[in-house]
Recover the amino acids of this structure.
């Protein structure tokens, strides 16, 4: 089944002619902006996850004694 799909896609890639398409400068700018936004979103997500993981581990391993525990 996968071989048929790949063969069909390959045949369509060979059969197609030139597209004569036009990409204005705004399209490249838009793609660059989307890549930058995705990179920053992934970075912010990793940072948020890291701080939550660090706080969780600190809560487990760093127990502070309260004044009522010493009695």
């Amino acid at each position: 089944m996968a071989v048929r799909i790949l063969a069909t896609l390959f045949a369509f890639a060979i059969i197609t002619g030139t597209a004569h398409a036009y990409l204005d400068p705004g399209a490249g700018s838009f793609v660059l902006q989307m890549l930058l936004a995705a990179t920053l979103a992934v970075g912010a997500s990793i940072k948020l996850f890291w701080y939550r993981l660090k706080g969780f581990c600190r809560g487990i391993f760093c127990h502070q004694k309260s004044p009522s525990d010493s009695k």
